[in-house]
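User: Sorry, folds how?
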Amino acid sequence: MPKTEKKAGDHIDARCTRCREITNHTIIAMVAESPARVRCNTCSGDHNYRPPVLTEASPPRVSPAKPGRRTRVDRRWKAQQQEWRDATEKADSGVTVAYRMDRSYRVGDLVNHPTFGVGMVQQVVKPNKMEILFAEGIKSLRCRL
């Protein structure tokens, strides 16, 4: 299989500075053989190319603390991760429901989302939202009450 070299106008995955996610981009400028500037196909923002960094779920960034010292965010993150692990053990027995925006949910329901995976409903917020704990953290999603 021949190696295809990228050129201006090609599509590439990159970290978007406006969307704050890895999204599809179009290369608008090259330096040597690497992309220099890209345009996000989601928000149409132009920025320098930032290669996608795929990591496992990592805790949110906080200001640096003294080495060896735990912060509240670290403890909360670890507690959420443990709660998620406990909830997904139940998911193996087939008690999850597929996520749909036009469905109503209750606290404690296990939801299988096509992008985020299995999560547990933490809170239902009126008029039409809920907070679900997934592997990468809590997400707010639409639902019907």
